[in-house]
Amino acid sequence: MGGIKSKYDIFRQQTRIIVHGTTTKAGRIFDLILLGVILLSLFLIIMETVEGFDAKYHSQLVFLEWVITIFFTIEYILRVISIDKPLKYVVSFYGIIDFIATLPMYLSIFFPGTSVLTAVRALRLLRLFKIINHPHFTSQSIHLKEAINASKGKIIVFIYFVLICTIIIGSIMYIIEGKESGFTSIPTSIYWTIVTLTTVGYGDISPQTPLGQIFASLVMILGYGIIAVPTGIITAEFAKRNINPNTSSETFKTTCTACNTVIQNKEALFCHHCGDKLNDSIVRS
Q1: What H or E segment, with its residue span, contains residue 254?
Q2: Are the C-beta atoms of residues 220 and 198 closer than 8 Å to each other?
Q3: Under 8 Å CB-to-CB from 71, ≥6 apart: which residues?
Q4: What is the DSSP letter of 244?
Q5: 226: nearest Cα among 247, 207, 200, 249
C-alpha cells in the first residue's frame, strides 16, 4: 500500500503535468504562454537596438527584460524540481538553452554590457517543435529527418566536389585577371568564386577582362545548378519516405464527427485536428 503523498509531491506532480506536458490542455496553454514570452523577449531585444526607440523607452525595456528574466528563472526552477531526474534535464539540449536564457540580465549586474547576450534567447524558439506536437507535423518532420540522413553521404560527396571546383575556378580566375583586377591572391579568387557560385554577388571584386567576364558568366550559370542539386537529392529521398507503405487499392477514409476532418490513418484513435475520439463508423473508397 503506497504512502500518502505530501503536498510537495502533489505540487511536483501537478507542475510536471503543466510544465513538461505537451498533450494536456494545461500543458498546451503553458507552452503557448511560454512561446509568447519568448517572442516578446526577442521583440524587445530587436527594438533595443533601434537608437531612437531605446532612448525613449530604455527604462521600460529594462523593466520588461527583468520581468521576462524572472519568468524564465521560475520556469527553469519548476522544470528542474518537477521531474524525477533533474540532472538529465539540466544537461539536456533544451535544459542548457533554458539556463543560458536566464543568465544575461544577472550577468549585467556584475559585467555591464553583457545584457546584449539576451539575443541567445532566440534559441528558445526551438521549443516551437515541442509545442506544435501535432501528428501531421511530427510525421512530416520524421520523414524530413530520415530523408536528410539518407542523403547525407551524397551531399558530403557533392560538397567535396564543389570545394574542388571552387579551388580550381579560383586559381583560373587568378591567372586570367591577376592583381590588377583585384584578384590579389588565390584565396581572394576563391572567395570571389564562392560569392559567385552562391549567386550572392557582392560586387566588391569583379572581372575586368573579356576572357574573365566570359568565364565568370559560366561560373554564374554553374551556380544555379549547384544550388539545385542538394535540394533535389533531399526532395527525392523525402518523396520516397512520404509514400505510405500500407497504401493499397482500398483506401481508408473516415470523418471526425466533431469537426468533419477527413482521417486517412486507419490506426488513428483520435482526430489529429480537434483531438476528439473517433467513432467506429468507417467509410472506404
Answers
A1: strand 252-255
A2: no
A3: 37
A4: -
A5: 200
**What is the tens place of the pLDDT at every residue in 66-93?**
999 999 999 999 999 888 888 888 888 8
Q: Do 282 and 269 touch, CB atoms closer than 8 A?
A: no
145/234 Cα distance (integer angstroms): 10
For residue 265, give the C-alpha cell: 490513418
Exposed/middle/buried for residue 248 (C-beta within 10 Å: 0-12, 13-18, 19+): exposed
Half-sphere exposure in the Cβ direction for 26 (13 Å, CA):
9
Whether 170 shows a pLDDT value over 90: the answer reads: yes
At position 17, the amino acid (one-letter code) is I
Is residue 254 packed enough to be buried (19+ CB in 10 Å), middle (13-18) or exposed (0-12)? buried
CA distances from 208 to 93, 212, 215 (A): 50, 7, 11
Q: How far apart are CA 193 and CA 205, in angstroms?
A: 10
Mean pLDDT of 197-208: 88
What are the residues facing 253 on neighbouring strands?
A: 283
In which residue are the cell numbers 515541442 written?
130
Pairwise CA distance, residues 22 & 29, whole Å:
9
pLDDT of residue 101: 82
Contact status, residue 257 vs residue 276, Cβ threshold 8 Å: yes
Phi then psi dihedrals of residue 77, to 5 deg: -65, -40
What is the per-residue pLDDT across 106-132, written as a single tens digit (0 to 9) for each?
888 887 766 566 677 777 777 766 666
Rounded CA separation 256/208 (Å): 67
- Give residue-wise pLDDT tens across range 206-254: 999 999 999 999 999 988 888 888 888 888 877 776 654 444 334 455 6
Nearest partner of 245 among 139, 157, 166, 162, judged by Cα:
139
